[in-house]
Amino acid sequence: MNVAGTLRKFDSWRLRKRLRRFSLMEKISIFILILMSIFLMLPLIYIFNHAFKPYEELFIYPPNIFVRHPTTQSFLELASITKGTAVPITRYLFNSVIATTLGVVAIVIASAMCAYPISKHKFPGHKFIFATILLTLLFVPETVSIPRYLIISQLGIFNTYWAHVLPLVAVPTGVFLMKQFIDQLPDELLDSARMDGAKEFTLFLRIVIPVVMPAIMTVSIIAFNSTWLSTEASENFIQDEELKTFQFYVQTLTSGLANSVSRQGAVAAAALILFLPNFIMFLAFQSKVIATMAHSGIK
After folding, report:
1. Where in the chain are the domains?
2. In the CATH hierarchy, which top-level class contains the domain 84-296?
3. Which of 46, 141, 151, 167 has the most other CB atoms within 10 Å of its CB?
4. What's the whole-model pTM score?
5. pLDDT tens profile 225-251
């Protein structure tokens, strides 16, 4: 006990010593940042607690952020809804996983292979092409929905997993982040590899890809988020219920119901299921995201 008490006193003494090093303005700034961090964490805390609330707590007024009597009732309700239907909930989840995996791989490959020649091969018009790619950021997805539908129709990939993937492959943000990272790669390094007999594809795989790995992780997170939450294909390009995604299924949980209270617990559970993969992905690769954002602003 004496040893533990001594250690606690020593730790508090070290903390006080560190705090004395900060000026008054620095202490105020730290306090404000702590308050902002707590405020930004409230939605995360709410979505976790909301999924485990019983129905009597879901609609209590004033609402509570923290659950008082946690239960898995909402998850059981979500699973039971599809028991009497032809398509189980696991099938929707499986479709989401497959579509998201294919989408992330396709987006990363397309972004990297587009950014490399724009950055390191000064062909005529490369600046114009890059500016055009960035210009597409100004367009909302709804403006290209009809061209997408026509392309999917002409390719004959209705009711396939590729209908989920192809409309999402072009990601201007991914090309931008990849190019900014590749710009930091010295041209002399690539030239020396070419003198040793390396082909362009070898340069791309052996030199460029390892260097841009932080950007690849960041683009993967962006691609995962856009693909995982997308319902465009299930709404417009997929008629087969067995090929629709979990995100689309969540949208249909309360549609057509006269009672707005019904299935709200299942919706809360589904929202947590949709949120968790994005949250885990960001926690796993947040250091890569920070490195990418730092390099993106360096010239």
Report:
1. 2-78, 84-296
2. mainly alpha
3. 167
4. 0.82
5. 989 999 999 999 999 989 999 999 988
